[in-house]
Every structure is written in C-alpha cells, then in structure tokens.
User: Which sequence fits this backbone?
C-alpha cells in the first residue's frame, strides 16, 4: 500500500532482495557473488540495496562509474566490509580518490594504466587492478591483439610494487539469447586471454565473466565470481527462457500512484496530447499523476496497463511528462485510490516485464529509469536501514 499522502511511490522489498541473493548463490555455489548496484541500484537505491546485500553476506559490490563507488565508501561501506569494483573510467577520472578509498579499478587500455600509475605514485597507494579483456562484446575491454602489451605493462608495474593484478575479467554480449554462438566463442576467448595472462605471471584473486543471464544459464562461466545485477532485483534477465519464479526470484520493485482525478466525460472526447485516444461513449477517466519524467515510457502510450481497484486499465492516449490517463469505463473509484503500475506479478498484477513488452524495451530499462521524483520506500530490511 502507498504511504499516506504520496503522489507515487516505489516500494523496495528488501526481503525479496535477500531471497534473490540466496537463490543466485544457489545457482553459482562455487563462485563468490558481486552485487551490481550501478545506476542507483538499477533504480532501487544503491546504498540500501548494497547494505542489504552486505547484511546477507555479500562481499563484493560493483558499479559502473568511480563516482558511484566513491559514494558507497562515503556512505560508510568500509574496505573491510566490501570490495568495490568500478569499471567505467574516462580520462582525468578520480584515480587518486579511488586509491585512497581502496576501490578496485578496471583497466581496459594503456591510457588508463598510465593515469592510474601517476595516481599511485602521487598517493603512494598501490592499486588493485582488474584487467578487462574484450572477448567479443566489442564495447569496453582490451582487444586480443593489444592484450600482451597491456598485460606486460601491468605485470611490470606489479613487479615494481605499484599495483596488484587482482582480477582478469570480461563481459558477455548475448548471454541473454540462449544458444547464441557468441556465448561459446566468448568463453573460449576468455579462457585463452586468461591463460596468456597467467603464463605471463598474473595470479589474479578473481577471474570473472558471468552477468545475470550467464549466472542462471551458463555454470561453466562462473569462475571465481559472478556479477549479478538484474536477477538480484528479481527481474528475469531472460524472459523468453523463464519468469522470475522459474528461477526462484521475486521482483523487488513495485510502483504505485494515487488517482489524482476521476471524472465523467462524454463520448468522442479526445484524451491527452495529440488526441491519440477518443472515448467510445460516455465514460469515466482517471488521472494517474506519473509520466515520462518519472520513468513511465512514452512508448507505452495506449499500450501500458495498470490495475485500479483490482481491474486492468490501459493507458488512454499519450503518456505525458507528469501524467497519463486511464479509461475507467464508467467506474468511479475514489480520487486517491491506488493505481498499481507494476508489482511482483505474484497475484497476477502487471510487472516491469509487461511494461517492457508494451514499450518495446527490456525490463532493465523500466526499473532503472524510474525517476528520482518518485520516493522509494524500503520494506523488510535487516541491514542498516531496518
Ligand atoms: C551491468 C553489468 C553487469 C550486471 O549485468 P546484469 O545483466 O544486470 O546482471 C555485470 N557486469 C558488467 C560489466 C556490467 O556492466
């Protein structure tokens, strides 16, 4: 239920998060688990989710940017509690701050190693480095033909005591497409690049490759550490293969709003910008006070579905910046009635996956884009948030 007086609210079920972490550990029993909390914990709140993960025994956190990692340390997550790895660096990034905060850094190329070593010399703090291989994703990571040079430079710096190569890692392109030939090819490329680095003298603490879909589908990719994002938030990363429940997961986020207006309108009335929708006959309209600024995809105009007083209602016309309308078909729920935009689906309510389908995207984008204007409420936690 919505908290008193709020326009809209994200409820974050931390008990579900714990259950998901336990389920994922069960899927990857031989590996450690990294809780990926980038992008504000995929919209769920990076800090509360990180604290809950730590309370349930997780020892690795992952972020994209160094700023996200630094924020976790600044909030009090100490190096003794959690390793934090961040992997998306740009020139001039906060290398020295990361070293002082004992944050593990990923290096994909020479420019990054050069900047990192300058910061190591300036601070006197040796770095913990994860060398990232591009095994086929074609995004971040070092190409095979540049790998010997990067590995060689890193190991020379290690010999000088400037850094430790603590990780060798890579990332999948198509682990969410079962049977995609690139999955096998990337595993072989990773094995080869890892073997090269180990022959050259690297002795990483952790070798890691698997994201959520690979954690669920490809045990041979688990190595020492699996990096789970979406699955930990209880959303299926492979909806064509299985629902959250099929993998023992429960969606953590639900999104609700409160009807801001209920009114009678005549037939033939245009609704919302562009009049994409016209009422069929005399009916009632309900105004839902969230829009694309809150993360409701505009592409879900006329297709997204919500529940109002237990009944399914489809978005009538365009989703606007701050609001959308549903046709209530003559029903007159009270103004202030809860509109369930998505929930965990266990009682047949709409899910983030449904919104993804309705708007031609993936559920990752739906949960991650819920805007900062929507307050988060945390339920069922055992960590520092209680
Ligand atoms: C986002 C990300 C992950 C987590 O991916 P999920 O599919 O959400 O589990 C893992 N590794 C890297 C490098 C990422 O960018």
Assistant:
């Amino acid at each position: 239920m919505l908290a008193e007086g709020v326009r809209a609210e994200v409820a974050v079920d931390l008990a579900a998060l714990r259950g998901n972490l336990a389920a994922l550990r069960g899927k990857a029993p031989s590996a450690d688990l990294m809780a990926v909390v980038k992008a504000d914990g995929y919209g769920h709140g990076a800090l509360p989710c990180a604290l809950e993960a730590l309370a349930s025994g997780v020892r690795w956190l992952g972020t994209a940017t160094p700023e996200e990692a630094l924020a976790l340390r600044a909030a009090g997550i100490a190096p003794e509690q959690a390793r934090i790895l961040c992997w998306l660096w740009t020139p001039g990034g906060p290398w020295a701050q990361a070293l002082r905060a004992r944050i593990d850094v990923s290096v994909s190329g020479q420019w990054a190693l050069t900047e990192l070593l300058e910061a190591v010399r300036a601070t006197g703090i040796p770095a913990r480095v994860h060398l990232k291989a591009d095994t086929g994703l074609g995004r971040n990571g070092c190409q095979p033909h540049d790998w010997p040079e990067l590995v060689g430079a890193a190991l020379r710096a290690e010999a000088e005591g400037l850094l430790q190569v603590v990780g060798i890692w890579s990332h999948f392109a198509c682990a969410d497409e079962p049977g995609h030939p690139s999955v096998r090819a990337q595993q072989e490329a990773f094995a080869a690049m890892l073997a090269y680095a180990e022959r050259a003298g690297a002795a990483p603490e952790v070798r890691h490759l698997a994201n959520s879909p690979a954690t669920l589908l490809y045990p041979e990719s688990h190595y020492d550490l699996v990096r789970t994002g979406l699955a930990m938030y209880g959303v299926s990363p492979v909806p064509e293969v299985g629902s959250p429940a099929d993998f023992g997961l429960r969606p953590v986020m639900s999104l609700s709003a409160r009807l801001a207006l209920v009114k009678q309108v005549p037939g033939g009335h245009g609704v919302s910008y562009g009049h994409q929708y016209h009422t069929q006959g005399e009916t009632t309209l309900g105004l839902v006070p969230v829009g694309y600024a809150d993360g409701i995809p505009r592409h879900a105009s006329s297709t997204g579905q919500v529940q109002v007083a237990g009944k399914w209602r489809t978005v009538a016309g365009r989703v606007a910046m701050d609001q959308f309308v549903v046709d209530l078909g003559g029903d007159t729920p009270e103004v202030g009635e809860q509109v369930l935009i998505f929930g965990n689906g266990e009682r047949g309510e709409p899910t983030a996956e449904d919104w993804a389908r309705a708007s031609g995207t993936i559920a990752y984008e739906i949960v991650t884009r819920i805007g900062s204007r929507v307050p988060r409420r945390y339920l069922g936690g055992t960590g520092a948030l209680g």
Remarks:
- Residues 181-199 form the longest helix (19 residues).
